[in-house]
Amino acid sequence: MSSTGDGAAVSEELNVLEPSTERVLDTIPRANAGDVDVAVARAVAAFPAWRDFAPARRAGLMREIATAVERELEDLAVLEARNAGKPLADARGEIGMVVETFRYYAGSPERPHGETIPVAGGQAFTVREPLGVVGLITPWNFPLAIAAWKLAPALAAGNTVVLKPAQLTPLTALRFSEIAREAGLPDGVVNVVAGPGGTCGRRLVEHPDVAKIAFTGSTEVGRSIAAEAASTLKRVTLELGGKSAGIVFADADIEAAAAAAPGAVFGNAGQDCCARSRILVEQSALDRFMDLLEPAVKALRVGDPLADGTQMGPLISAGQRDAVAGFVPAGAPIAFRGNVPDGPGYWFAPTVLCPVAPDDRAVREEIFGPVAVVIPFRDEAHAVELANDTIYGLSGSIWTRDGARALRVARAVQTGALSINSNNSVRVSTPFGGFKQSGYGRELGPHALDAYSDVKTIFYSTEGA
Ligand code: NAD
Prior knowledge:
Number of helices: 14
CATH class of the largest domain: Alpha Beta
Mean pLDDT: 96
Helix content: 25-40%
Radius of gyration: 23 Å
Strand order of the largest sheet: 12-13-14-11-10-15-16
CATH superfamily of the largest domain: Aldehyde Dehydrogenase, Chain A, domain 1
Low-confidence stretches: 1-10
CATH topology of the largest domain: Aldehyde Dehydrogenase, Chain A, domain 1
Bound molecules: nicotinamide-adenine-dinucleotide
Shape: globular
Oligomer: single chain
Number of domains: 2
């Protein structure tokens, strides 16, 4: 398998591991900075023809890609489940979202995008132009789904792309590029470069022929990308970390809130930027909530990602497991924990901490693993204060039967996507992205297209010649 999907020369090998067995799943060529240059050159060459594709033709091709991915859904889901260590049912949902995302943005090339603006002496109007070559840098937690959030609007807007998936999970992106080409996507429109962030990612960010970087990953790397991109004034969108709060008021359906809480923080083994890893509970409902949460956490089925009924898999790597374990040192205030299988695999038991000191690292930092803190609050104002007491602002949930309060709190909490009496804040058709140090720019929904195009104003004089 070639790293660029096009036979570009690559030098070293990359062993891709399966986190549930710790064994090598595949060995692929490891791309380097030179391969990025080759991929960018191919994307530059492919851009004019792709930009000039008739709208209906581009839309039709995106639908073809969606259908081709749908045909391969099971194989892609198994590959994703094995490589990322996620339950197969989750992986099926994510590949389904890839299909849905391509179908959604296939609607865009044929929709109107400009405005006419009254001016003196002629006619002014705007059109949206693609940016050119866009660099996409993605993380390992939802590998192909997050890539599709970027690929589909970027392609729909007429850009060509170089996608750099996370080194730990490049396999579905490489397979996707083959599927897209077989579906009729012209050579050079999508180029995948599987290599390290420090070389390949960095080269993409500094490359003078790359017009924009769409990045999803840690806040730390996002900060360095924003700084580096400034030297070429690249456009940048950043989807970064989170420390989201699930706020449970005493008047809520406590059974429903407690039943949903494990999925909201232990889904994808907690390696989810939207994880509601701080569970804020109104003091008067705390005991009842904990009584209900404990059996729900203990009942979580943690194990082989490919086995029927598995709800949580291993962490992505030994390094990630060590990092997560650092948040639960000896003597940590463990309220209760779930189970993990014996034997190989980067397992970590779902863990609930309570009571936790407000300055505990587990309260302040993104853990990106199956560790939740439960924190009591006094009243609505205190809940909002605690929810906002973080550098992050990505997601969150509010559980209450009081509709007016739900709306007040939703407006007061500083995050980009919230849900009320639900933990679902990510949909293909609605915008998603962060406030504060969770990043800037929006993916999904109608807004994503704005981030992959620039507005051009044209004035046509109706006077004189
Ligand atoms: P990461 O920041 O380590 O890596 C993300 C990507 O950036 C990878 O492809 C990596 O190779 C690349 N990279 C690393 N260093 C680079 C550099 N100097 N220049 C250019 N590229 C570089 O993140 P991760 O560990 O893969 O993912 C976990 C993080 O992603 C968490 O913080 C999580 O919250 C965040 N995340 C955010 C969202 C969101 O939508 N907001 C979604 C998923 C994950």
